[in-house]
Amino acid sequence: xxxxxxxxxxxxxxxxxxxxxxxxxxxxxxxxxxxxxxxxxxxxxxxxxxxxxxxxxxxxxxxxxxxxxxxxxxxxxxxxxxxxxxxxxxxxxxxxxxxxxxxxxxxxxxxxxx
Amino acid sequence: xxxxxxxxxxxxxxxxxxxxxxxxxxxxxxxxxxxxxxxxxxxxxxxxxxxxxxxxxxxxxxxxxxxxxxxxxxxxxxxxxxxxxxxxxxxxxxxxxxxxxxxxxxxxx
Lengths: 114, 109
What we know:
The complex is a heterodimer.
Chain A: E1 5-7, E2 10-13, E3 19-24, E4 31-38, E5 42-50, E6 53-56, E7 65-71, E8 74-79, E9 88-95, E10 104-105, E11 109-113
Parallel strand pairs in A: 2-11
Antiparallel strand pairs in A: 1-3, 3-8, 4-5, 4-9, 5-6, 7-8, 9-10, 9-11
Chain B: E1 9-13, E2 18-23, E3 32-38, E4 45-50, E5 55-56, E6 61-64, E7 70-75, E8 84-91, E9 103-108
Parallel strand pairs in B: 1-9
Antiparallel strand pairs in B: 2-7, 3-4, 3-8, 5-6, 6-7, 8-9
């Protein structure tokens, strides 16, 4: 099993540009999570999908952030427009149906907004 | 959510057992104890979890006290590659997993 796949691994962009982060969950997992990690705030849950449906997006910082899961094998996290304070490592994780609990994380996307 | 308290940092000699404590005095009856670790620049890695009984897998052992107010993660023979931040998380097995600051374990030769 390839595990959770994220792309790109590194992204450098300028303030105001649109950024799209991508995630492919582990096959058979139907729960998907987006996290953000910074030195100041640690690991924060942004949004959670179950069966491709967003269940809770209360962690999404503001309207500039949006996430989609068009099918069971793909999700995107989009930031438009990006700001320097969005610089962080963004992790995607997946798990079996809610109740089993164990989340498996991808390698992360390191985003730098100049 | 039950909160956890972990030491900020710990050292361990290579080849010795690493015992990482976690206090979770407000844990509820249906909340599990999960342990993850994060090696520098990598995504968090699942280690082990338990509810009441002690658990063991190929990576570690989890000892949960009888009153469930604290637990200890044991790495039986620590190696340099076990140097990481270790997170103790208490949760119902649902989506809401909140990471604290964790314990930074340094394994020294």
